[in-house]
Design brief:
This protein folds into 2 domains: 44-139, Sandwich (Tumour Suppressor Smad4), CATH 2.60.200.20; 150-273, no CATH class. The protein is mainly beta and 290 residues long. The strands form 4 sheets. A 6-stranded antiparallel sheet has the order 1-11-10-9-6-7, with no helix packed on it. 12% of the residues lie in helices and 36% in strands. It contains 3 helices and 17 strands.
């Protein structure tokens, strides 16, 4: 973050109650720490969809899975069979899995990075998106991670932290959520929220991001996406309802992973979550040169 942006952000934050300001400052620090971590989104530098059978991997241009030049020309072969991914290392490659040297591995998409393999500082792990299985590559030495120059925000405004009425469904509903791959991904929604801004009532439908159902996940878009925020929309997490009320704080709205890497598979807002109003709160569009 440039000195000018940091100074302006400090002035904006200073106008807010100290406890709330401290809460948001901590949230923003954690956000940056997650993005810039060795396994954060700025380190995601590849996504390779596997074809059934064998898939060669290495820095050789002829590889099915092309890795950075610093890796061996051939690190081994990934095999996709009946939705399962296994790996067999080339004798010339040095591979570790779960912190120990190995020559073979099974990569379960449900376990993600935990089941990944590491070679020459690059991590590969399996992911599943509906019927497709692929490998995601982490490279902590990426130019995007090394060149990260901070996040920018709208002016902090408590007027965009609202008490939203939660309206539960009789039974959780399956919502078909589109993603950037053109897929429809079924996600579970427990209900919807209604909130008032400047005298107008709006509605958003959250989903559970994971099976743990730890909070409400909002995938939404508003009129700031035209020029100010990420064009595909933003994300927001909120605590589970308490006595029929959801603490909906748009100052915590943030850019999806696709704003930082071309190798994410972000969900997109459903039509009902595309609001005809400008919400100038939270994270601004990320720019690599600020």
């Amino acid at each position: 973050m440039t000195l000018l942006v940091a100074a302006v952000a400090f002035v904006w934050l200073s106008a807010q109650p100290a406890s709330y300001r401290a809460e948001i400052e901590q949230y923003r620090r954690q956000r940056v720490e997650e993005l810039t971590a060795p396994d954060g989104w700025l380190a995601v530098q590849g996504l390779f969809w596997l074809h059934e059978g064998t898939n060669t991997a290495g820095s050789d241009p002829a590889s099915d899975i092309r890795l950075p030049e610093r890796t061996k020309k051939r690190i081994g072969v990934f095999t996709l069979a009946d939705g399962k991914v296994t790996f067999a290392a080339d004798p010339s490659a040095t591979i570790t899995a779960r912190g120990a040297p190995t020559t073979t591995a099974t990569l379960d998409p449900e376990n993600g990075e935990e089941d990944g393999i590491v070679t020459d500082g690059v991590t590969l792990f399996a992911i599943r998106r509906t019927t497709r299985v692929g490998l995601r590559m982490l490279d902590p030495d990426s130019a995007q991670r090394r060149g990260f120059n901070g996040l920018r925000y709208f002016r902090l405004d408590r007027g965009y932290r609202v008490r939203a009425k939660f309206v539960p469904y009789d039974q959780p509903k399956t919502v078909q959520v589109p993603n950037v791959l053109g897929m429809l991904v079924p996600m579970e929604s427990p209900g919807y929220v209604e909130f008032v801004l400047k005298g107008q009532t709006y509605r958003l439908e959250p989903v559970y991001e994971t099976s743990k159902r730890e909070d409400l996940f909002f995938i939404f878009k508003d009129l700031t996406s035209r020029t100010e925020t990420y064009e595909a929309g933003r994300f927001l997490h909120a605590p589970l309802p308490a006595e029929g009320v959801v603490d909906l704080d748009f100052n915590r709205a943030y850019n999806p992973p696709c704003a930082f890497t071309a190798f994410a598979t972000c969900p997109l807002p459903i039509k009902a979550n595309q609001l005809p109003v400008r919400l100038p709160a939270g994270e601004l569009r990320y720019r690599t040169h600020q």
